User: Fold this.
Amino acid sequence: MFVVNGLIAILFGLMIIFIKEETIIKLTLYFGLLILAGGAILLIVAVRNMKQEKPHALLLAESIAAILIGAIIAFYPQQSLKFFLILVGVWAVIIGLMQIIMAVQMKNKVSNHNLFTINGIITLVVGLLLFFDPMGAIKALLIIIGLLALVTGVLLIYLGFQVRSSKKLTQ
Assistant:
């Protein structure tokens, strides 16, 4: 089983490393269409509830929001993706700064406060990259994820062969 999972991880890693920006934007478009379709289904249910005099206000509000958000993402996938990545970047900058501040405050209380500092710096840098170059940063992150998947795949295959050889020795 380890070998199969390792092969899947390697295939996933290769796919992620070589994914094109156009593919990411297409996936964003499809995501927008899914949200739009979900909103339409919610709207149908809300109208049905309205006709049956059941509670419907929250469902109606949710359906309208989903339709609007889905339409924006579907019609403007690249801009939506960039906007989302910029928001994630802002969030990461805030979290990174908070982690650095916490690390400084914990300097005398925790022996490994340097790990908090390093984590805060990495989070801050990723946030800044996402904020200033969202598409470049996401491509770089996808390459890192792909490389990690490749390494994981190789390790799983190695582990699978090790487990198999240890079973042969115990039989």
Notes: Helices lie at 2-17, 21-51, 57-75, 77-105, 113-132, 134-170. The chain has a mean pLDDT of 91.
